[in-house]
Amino acid sequence: GGCGVIFSRTVQADVNPFNTSDSDEEAERRREPSPSAEPHGASLAPFSSQTDAEPRALSLPGTRASPGGDGVPTETRVSVDAVAAQLLRDQYILTALELHTELLEAGRELPRLRDYFSNPGNFERQSGTPPCWLRLSFPGNTLAANRTGSISTLDSLDFTRYSDDGNRESDERVAECEIPSQERKNYKSSPEIQEPIRPLEKRALNFLVNEYLLKNEYKLSSITFSDENDDQDFELWDDVGLNTPKPPDLLQLYRNCGSSQLSPREMADVAVGMDTSDLTKDFITQEPVQRIETIQQEIIQELEYQISLLNSEKQSLAEQITQLQRKLSPAFHQALLSFCHTSADSRLGSEVSCIADSEESVMLMLGRCLPHIVPNVLLAKREELIPLILCTACLHPEPKERDQLLHILFNLIKRPDDDQRQMILTGCVAFARHVGPTRVEAELLPQCWEQINHKYPERRLLVAESCGALAPYLPKEIRSSLVLSMLQQMLAEDKVDLVREAVVRSLGIIMGYIDDPDKYSQGFELMLLSLSDLSERVVSATHQVFIPAFAAWTTELGNLQSHLIPSLLTRIERLLQGEHGLDEHKLHMFLSALQSLIPPLFAVVLQNAPFTGRARLANEVTPIEVTRFPRPASPLQDVSTLVGGREQLAALLHLYEHQLQHEGTAGWDRLLWVVNQLLPRLIEIVGGINVSSSTCVHEFSRFFWRLCRTFGKTFTNTKVKPQFQEILRLSEENVDATAGNGVLTKATVPIYATGVLTCYNQEEDRKLLIAFLEDVMTTLSLSHAPLDSLKASFVELGANPAYHELLLTVLWFGVVHTSALVRCTAARMFELLVKGVNETLVAQRVVPALITLSSDPEISVRISTIPAFGTIMETVTQRELLERVKMQLASFLEDPQYQDQHSLHMEIIKTFGRVGPNAEPRFRDEFVLPHLHKLAMVNNMQTVEQKRMDVASQLFEAYSALSCCFISEEVMLNHFLPGLRCLRSDMEHLSPEHEVILSSMVKECELKVESRAMGEPPGSMSIAASLVGEDAKTKFLSKMGQLTTSGAMLANVFQRKK
Q1: Average pLDDT, the chain
Q2: Cα atoms found within 13 Å of the Cα of residue 404, Cβ hemisphere only
Q3: Pairing, β 10-11 against β 1020-1021
Q4: How far apart are the C-alpha atoms of 461 and 502, rounded to whole Å?
Q5: Which of 78, 131, 723, 974 has its CA 20 to 30 A from that of 1029?
């Protein structure tokens, strides 16, 4: 490819291309230049005149004369060997190579060309320096010189680059050789247009690049580079394929390239051998322009000539084709083609035979074919057809066909799974964006309406999800009427949880786009309907999507504080005032809705504050702490999402705290509503809750905790706590006040303790909580008030292990209190705490405190410890700890000072009945049952009838609970059966209805013992489990239901100890 850049079309006029001989000797003689001849290439100087040389061309038959020739072209025939000799002499190497190749293909090998191209010496430069033309084009370019000398033999040439096999690269190079040499020089030296890299050049550069990477410690890059060029061995230079020495490395080539630029003087000398000062200004400025114009004219002439040749060739080929065509009649052709077995008679044949030639015809064809394609595609792969169906439905011109295609889309899969529905929904959204609201209403919605009552839940689920996904693309009138009605119907009627969950989510999306204020009441009823759903999935979706979206719309309408929150509070108040008892499910429903409205309420307070306009001006604000807000149920309940971003929220929070601490709440209407209306109303509601309802206490506690954490510590300390403290009034002078005692027994105490005082966990917060619980315990104890509010506080706090140490601190305060009443209260509180505390704390903190109280001077304090000791026996597994508790209980039962302590006996029997079924079997058999037997025997001799009846009733409950346990035969004979007989003896006189049940139990026990005595294997037995005969069972259960037995005992009757 180098010859096209090197040689000009102008050579010395005195060279006669026809003055050659057919002999090799004559050719070799002419190959030697004469001493007086001008060096080859001197005429290539860029400033040489065109008059110094004339274009050289061979006058061959059928070619035109050279433009600069003097005579008329002749028809003299020249031998092929003469042409080859002239080409080699003038260094038209590639042209000679092409001639050699064509002769080889024609079977006429020419010895001159064969010998030339098989001799490597013809392609080597001994000096290793590039020729003058290369030095002119790329001064200082050593790499170019080495590249030129790299072609060593004919075998190393890439023949495919120059063959006539239709290769594009070959065609481009042939065309390039036909362009005048000066134009080629200008073209190839242009920095914007580069000649494509050759294979050998690429291998040489790859070798140098890899060498550079290794030398400069880019080992990983070198490895990757080697992997990407796995066809080359970078260890050996010879693998490159060149027979020249390895060139310098890249660094040396770079330095040489930059340091060997020729000076203007040198360039002028080399080019024309004359001083640049001899050139006139006009020559320098105008000569290049004239040269360019001349070159352009030559190119145009050459191209026009080539076009004329191609046209002539085209005409000749057309004539030849016409001559070769056969003269057959059309009828014969048609008859002949009928044997090809083609048919256009069928539907498919007509579609196949008519290829669509426009977009509209393609859409029409797809509309006709898709209904036939879909049924024949596997169900598992039908989603692959969704793009095709949607595209056709979008662009098809016929409404009827579009309707059919959308019907196919919604019925594409009988029961689409999650992924398949997602693909269909994605397609529906794309369709809606493309066609606009009118066509969505007219074409997509009818498909949804048709399947609203489909028998498969997956289809109805698709409808529910589609209503939400299409909401942004529907006309607003349709959104708030038809679509809302569809979803409301599905929410009320559909039996499948998943469908109703999707309906609630879509309703939430509708609420985000609805703008008809008249639909507010309908939205409120939908919220209540969703919250009352029996499925947790539906309720969860209501809190995550529907309520946040509905609250956002309500805020825009201005109804959040004026209607939505007050309406929920009103419903809670009605529940608490109901005559038929509290519906805890509805209370949870309304309270959870209020809890979900806390984030939008706080966002309203922030966005309508005196400082809201200054929030954008804050540059540096403190980042929000991770624990600043409770974890939101969904991103829609995140306050940062509601106010417009985390940075905006940080700026607002900074100003919010500053406003509360330094500037007050004057003029801040939204916050004043929370302080003056919401909080007082909530605290009043809390006072009406039944404190024994742990569910209600927990719900309100969580609500106040979220409210205080959301509004912040400053708000809690300055606005919430003072209102509770004013109501509770825990000062000593109010201990006997009826009002003070009344409020202390209500749910206000546990909700304030667990919902407000636990919001923050700093040391001062924990101290405040401890002091409050100590004051409540003291006040309730000294005023002989019920302890339910204190117990509720301990139960709620005890559920969190983080508060166990704090509660033990409070109880120790009671253990060492001077009042026996307070000490009794502390002893009873230990029973609530034991079950949740780990055994280490029980051993280190609980048992020592109980043993201290068990030796209290006051008998009431000692009796108060028995339930806690019993709970320890029920829950603890440490042997040493159990022995200590067992010894303490034994001292209560065996010490003579307690022999006539009726209250102590009642407490022990009650405790045994509660913990016996779940206690360790050994403790039950060796301690509980024997002592119950003794107490039953003692009760037979009780002279005070009321005491006897009290103990007998308590024993009946204990034996009823223990009858479900598996008892060994020995214990059955020695303790359980004798104890039952003693109890039956009491009940014969005191309570005949109890006696019937006891007789059945005794009879069953005796039958068990007798069956074992007759040879059955020994083992344990359960009386309740061995009741035989339906009459006995029915009688037993009916009698048990009539008795005034506590719920806990009845629940334990039919428990089995494993």
Answers
A1: 77
A2: 16
A3: unpaired
A4: 7
A5: 974
Lowest mean pLDDT of 393-397, 547-551, 1014-1018, name the range. Answer: 1014-1018
> Residue 967's beta-bridge partner residues?
1021
The structure tokens 């020592």 sit at: 848
DSSP symbol at 139 = T
Q: Collapsing DSSP states into helix, strand and coil, what is residue 1022? A: coil
Count of positions (residues) in the chain: 1058
Percent of the chain predicted with pLDDT > 90: 30
Pairing of strands 967-968, 54-55: unpaired
pLDDT in tens, 422-457: 999 999 999 999 999 999 999 999 998 898 999 999
**Distance from chain centroid for Cα 216:** 43
Side chain identity at residue 947, one-letter code: K
Q: How far apart are CA 640 and CA 658, in angstroms?
A: 19
How many beta carbons lie within 10 A of that of residue 518, not counting itself? 7
The DSSP secondary structure of 701-764, one letter per residue, reads: HHHHHHHHHHH-HHHIIIIIHHHHHHHH---GGGTT-HHHHHHHTSTHHHHIIIIITTS--SHH
Rg of the chain, C-alpha, whole Å: 53
Which three-class secondary structure state does DSSP give residue 968?
strand
Cα 827 to Cα 846: distance, rounded to the nearest angstrom:
10
3-state SS string for 553-568? HHHHHCCHHHHHHHHH
Reported in sequence order, the residue ranges of 99-187 that DSSP labels E, i.e. its strands, are none
Question: Tokens 């304090």 label which residue?
Answer: 861
Q: Rounded to whole angstroms, how far apart are CA atoms 115 and 768? A: 111
Six-digit token string for 358: 């426009």
Residue 429's CB is within 10 A of a number of other CB atoms, namely 16
Q: Is pLDDT at 735 greater than 50 in this prediction?
A: no
User: How confident is the model at residue 228, as a pLDDT?
Assistant: 86
Average pLDDT value for residue range 718-746 = 71
User: What are 550-598's pLDDT values in tens digits?
Assistant: 999 999 999 999 999 999 999 999 988 877 777 888 889 999 999 999 9
For Cα atoms 856, 861, 862, give the angle at the middle one, nearest 5 degrees: 70
Q: What is the DSSP letter of 1043?
A: S
629: DSSP letter: S
Instruction: Render pLDDT for 847-894 as a digit per residue (tens, 0 to 9).
Output: 999 999 988 898 899 899 999 988 888 888 888 888 888 888 888 888
Q: What is the mean pLDDT of residues 104-127?
A: 77
Q: pLDDT at position 343, please? A: 64
The answer to whether the CB of 956 falls within 8 A of the CB of 910 is no
At 1012, the pLDDT band (50, 70, 90 cuts) reads low
Residue 516 has pLDDT above 80, yes or no: yes
d(CA 804, CA 159): 91
| CB-based burial label for 1039 (10 Å; 0-12, 13-18, 19+) | middle
Give yes or no for residue 107 having a pLDDT over 90. no
The two tokens of residue 44 are: 């290539």
Per-residue CA distances from 35 to 17, 19, 271, 429, 1011 (Å): 19, 19, 22, 87, 143
* Phi/psi at 304 (5° precision): -65, -40
Q: What is the largest CA-CA distance in the chain?
A: 163
211's tokens: 């060498």
Sign of CA dihedral 754, 756, 757, 759: positive
DSSP line for 272-301: HSS-GGGS-HHHHHHHHHHHHHHHHHHHHH
**In this structure, what are the phi and psi dihedrals at residue 967, rounded to the nearest 5 degrees?**
-115, 140
Q: What is the distance between the alpha carbons of residues 217 and 221, in angstroms, rounded to a whole number?
A: 9
Confidence check: pLDDT of 1051 > 50: no
CB-based contacts of 520: which residues, under 8 Å, 6+ apart? Answer: 553, 554, 557, 559, 563
Cα angle, residue 653 at apex, residues 648 and 656 outer, rounded to 5°: 125
Structure tokens at 719: 């606005």
**Which range has highest mean pLDDT (82-96, 194-208, 537-551, 953-967)?**
537-551
Residue that the structure tokens 């829609």 belong to: 636
